[in-house]
Amino acid sequence: xxxxxxxxxxxxxxxxxxxxxxxxxxxxxxxxxxxxxxxxxxxxxxxxxxxxxxxxxxxxxxxxxxxxxxxxxxxxxxxxxxxxxxxxxxxxxxxxxxxxxxxxxxxxxxxxxxxxxxxxxxxxxxxxxxxxxxxxxxxxxxxxxxxxxxxx
Length: 152
Fold this sequence. Notes:
Layout: H1 2-31, H2 41-47, H3 50-71, H4 82-103, H5 111-151
């Protein structure tokens, strides 16, 4: 299991960076009037330069990707029920994404901003979880039907 965690984390780090910087390109394309803005100005100011901020964000998005990728193993713990898997996964992702969002200045440090960010995150998590639940439930139903058909 430890080997799987390490492997997924190693694969998740560059994936997190890729997703993070793809998001910056999309946001820049929409809001930056033809300019590329790799980090929010507040992060560049805090880091002392834009390149320092880029390196910091690179590390943070990599860590986020690594944790989420390694955390996907939670769904493979067969002796846990779906409720326990969901709660543990949600907590793991929450305690990772909130500090990363705060440190990267994606969210203001005020309690209301953090609470709003968490609310949006929780709502998106729930919607994605619900979609995945119904997709997987449908696949299981079809597999069971196929097994029943083969028995007959």
